[in-house]
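Many groups now describe folds with learned vocabularies. In that spirit, our science desk offers one protein's residues alongside their backbone shape tokens.
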Amino acid sequence: MTITDPATGEQQMLTKAAHGHVHAPGESHDHTHESGNHRAVSSSALMYRPLGDAPLRARARRAVPLRGGDEAVDRAADEAGAAPSPSRGGLGRESGSGSGDPLAHPHEHHHRHEDSAEAVLHARAHGRTVALEQDILAKNQHLAEHNRDWFAECGILALNLVSSPGSGKTTLLERTIRDLHEQLPIHVIEGDQATANDAERIRATGCKVIQINTGTGCHLDADMLARGLWQLNPPPRSVLMIENVGNLVCPALFDLGEQAKVVILSVTEGEDKPLKYPHMFKASSVMLLNKIDLLPHLRFDAERCIDYARQVNPAIKVFRVSAETGEGMDDWYAWLRGEIASRQGPGTAP
């Protein structure tokens, strides 16, 4: 995972090893695989180190949970009879590289499987794959609640924008920022597997933005968001727009701590998308039906699409918009102002 500030070009690189968890620079660890059991010992806390020298508000530090070992892997290790992580009475911090080099990354593996597929099949046979997935989601939820508490303390409205690739999320975000920049302080975290292209587009609007690249990951998670917040440092009583990785599956499962998910569906997609991806539409508070300026040229039944969305989620709010022409965007902006007023107090939304 890489966090990039497009304004300075500075990057924070966080590597994700084959065994699945994230390593920050300076985090040392040892791994062995024995008879299909994954033993893991993390010998230092996983902490985000901010890029650059800009001062951060002390309260912002609460947004980033510090991890003293990977609890999900620890529990799996317990089942296998493996050693615990340092935060649970195992090795101390001194058991790292000892070099003092923050980029030192000792990494020893002893493999007795011919390939990873055999290890996966072995784990599934013992029921550990499901348990590990549950642990990962539980850990993410715990970190998401920390993020949510911090947003509430700071009066920040955080929205998680989700969609399929090509729905027009970034164009819609650009238009929202340009139309409201004199009224609302908006900051953005961009999520993509690679490139900072979308972050550069957002930066061109004058908005402060941080890019998170997930590599092979198909979604942002609460820990990634917390790390991005360190660098972005959004001020109190502002709006944070999180543009998630284009995907209607995984982001539905991973709470980031946002106040609401906003799903964008374009009329160039199938009108039955809400039925095909019900978890995402059920988890979303708002659906923006985008690119309605193209309706005269398409065989797309907007009413049927909206009906499908409300079959899945009767409470979902639907706004028909065109980020290209601006049609319907005032309804979206009115909803934003209402959310700001309800969460930050009367008189805060222009």
Residues 16-114 have pLDDT under 50 and may be disordered. The radius of gyration is 22 Å. Residues 187 and 240 are 5 Å apart (CA to CA). The chain has two domains: 16-140, 144-344.
